[in-house]
Amino acid sequence: MKYTDYDKAELHCHLNGSIPINTILKVIDNKCGFKEHDYIIDKPVKNLSEYFNPWKITRLLPHNKNIFMAILDGIGREMFTDNIKYIELRNSIIYLAKLNNITYDEVLDWYIEGFEAIKSEYKIDMRLIISVRREINEINEYYKILDLIKKKNSNIFVGFDLTGNETEVHFNEWPTFFRRVKENGYGITIHAGESWSDENVRYAITKCKADRIGHGLAIANNPELLELCKQNNICIEVCLTSNILTSSVSDISSHPVLQFHKFNIPYVLCSDNPGIRNKNLSFEYELFETITKISNFAEGMYENQLKYAFKNLR
Q: Which residue intervals define the domain Adenosine deaminase in the entry (predicted)?
């Protein structure tokens, strides 16, 4: 069987990085002279900052409801062709509200309507992890959003993700906020260790009580962090291709996933930004097999993906 034939779940996937190029070409006002090479990253860039350049395009795309729905449909169609059965998309509520001059409540309704349409059309269980930026102190707004999703009482909203520049200072309020998130039954995933910072991983687990860690590269070379993840059953969201393209990992043959596997640390394969990379989750599976020489893992990977999915908390 090809990896596209296996059922899969996607736990680390950014909405703005997942938009297929053909969907962008349909919805964009091409008076701006957009070209495919402005969006697709197919070789390593200098750093994370350069890797985020395509977001300058994608963040501006959903400037009305019809385009937002078209974007979701495009993502759903691509996921359907890769046999994705469950996906946790990540995106911000605040920026979408500002872009469209609408309320947070209206944004949440857009997500509910759009995700239900995906389930109806493609039979994909799509959920939302709400992204919050570590370098932007909008903590009061995040509390408002948390209260709103509680009132919506929709199982579409499953968790929060702390993202953004790891080199920025941590605001003191984050542990308190994430404590409230967990008290209300939502999952916590935190981008940490992508820039090889041990301290960010330690902070994510011990202070913010993360359930999952995005990337987590720094964990591989630190026995203390490996043990911390094992003891707390922390799942690592592994994004092989992204780590190469951001130059976070220079040699794919020595990717930290080898250490995670060796020390029995929970991990799942993820695509991160399949639109920008023009590579789907099946490609990550192929790459994993090449690196590890492990085959016949796909069914077990799907079981693990579902085991650590935040839908289980709802």
A: 8-289
